[in-house]
Amino acid sequence: MNGTGPAIDAVMLNFSPGSLMLLNAILAVVMFSIALDLRPRDFRVFLRQPRPLLSGLFAQFLVLPALTFLLVLVVAPQPSIALGLMLVAACPGGNISNFITHRAGGNTALSVSLTGFATVGAIVLTPLNIAFWGSLYPPTAEILRATRIDPVQVAITVGLMLVLPLILGMLLNAHRSALAARLRGPMQVLSMVIFVAFIVAAIATNWAYFLDYAPVVAVLVIVHNAMAMGAGNLVARGARLSAFDRRSLTIETGIQNSGLGLVLIFGFFGGLGGMAVVAAFWGIWHAVSGIALASLWSRYPVRP
User: Fold this and answer.
1) Which of 20-29, 198-207, 260-269 has the largest mean confidence?
2) What is the DSSP string of 92-131?
3) Which of 16, 45, 189, 261 would give a disulfide with 279, using CB separation of 3.0 to 4.6 Å?
4) Is residue 81 within 8 Å of 209, Cβ to Cβ?
């Protein structure tokens, strides 16, 4: 995988500070729209029966980063591509996982709760996973040393962009349920349309770089995404969860918050080429693979 040469590790994609602020705001709106589906009692259910929730968090924050590290060791891609894969694996579940789980006939309540818990956990676990796994692989350790990433700043970014909107959305749903119900559908559709449009615009701005490097990254992202979904499914089977819950864990582990990944890449790594191309391609591919899997599973309903 080293045939692309070192150029991609030196490329800094074009992404203005104003664009980064816009992406932060978009992701905050996305998380707020997800939180409109959440109530504190949704979390209490899984605190009483924690096995599905703990299995999902285990797959998300421990198994997937470890498998990603093994993939990097075997394939030995360019350092910025390797770190991009590690960073995406360290992110919590993506904003479309709940929609895809619903289409797949899985446990949507579990998916929503996993997104909520993983988002809160990401304050600590995302910077910890990036620092830990990135430091174990010498080429990516060099990038981390050069950028001097501050885990506290990453935690603050994740907290303000994801956790605060999550809390605000839950509070609105708890105290103004009628208003939350009216906002829920339009907000979720609007946030997804804006998010997709933003990714398309970012790719268009850097189209030449994507043409040069996307074919190399595409195969790795497809394999990585398949590994993520497989990991979620295997962990669920190991925990002896129902098929209803297994579908949720498979999708939740395979749908990553690549938008958060892009924020971290442009905010802390200067838009490093390989990392940004990985996160952007993940943002496209996981939606394609997730919807395809959901369409297949929807033909074979399972009981709750």
Assistant:
1) 260-269
2) -B-TTHHHHHHHHTS-HHHHHHHHHHHHHHHHHHHHHHHH
3) 261
4) no
Token pair of 72 as six digits: 């990097």
Q: pTM to 2 decimals?
A: 0.83
Q: Can you give the pLDDT at residue 4?
A: 44
Sorting pLDDT into bands at 50, 70 and 90, what band is 75?
Answer: very high
Dist. CA 68–CA 222, nearest whole Å: 12
Distances (CA, A) of 188 to 26, 30, 36, 120, 191: 11, 7, 9, 20, 5
User: What pLDDT, on a 0 to 100 scale, did the predictor assign at position 298?
Assistant: 92
What's the CA gap between 207 and 155, in Å, rounded? 31
Mean local confidence (pLDDT), 244-257: 94
Is residue 16 within 8 A of residue 152, CB to CB? The reply is no
Q: How many angstroms separate the CA atoms of 131 and 86, rounded?
A: 10
Looking at residue 271, the DSSP 8-state letter turns out to be T
Whole-number pLDDT of residue 6? 45
- Give me the amino acid identity at 5: G
| Residue 195 contacts residue 95 (beta carbons within 8 Å) | yes
Residue 176's CB is within 10 A of a number of other CB atoms, namely 12
Give the model's pLDDT for residue 153. 76
pLDDT at 98 over 60: yes
Burial class of residue 251 in the structure, from the number of CB atoms within 10 Å of its CB (0-12 exposed, 13-18 middle, 19+ buried) = buried
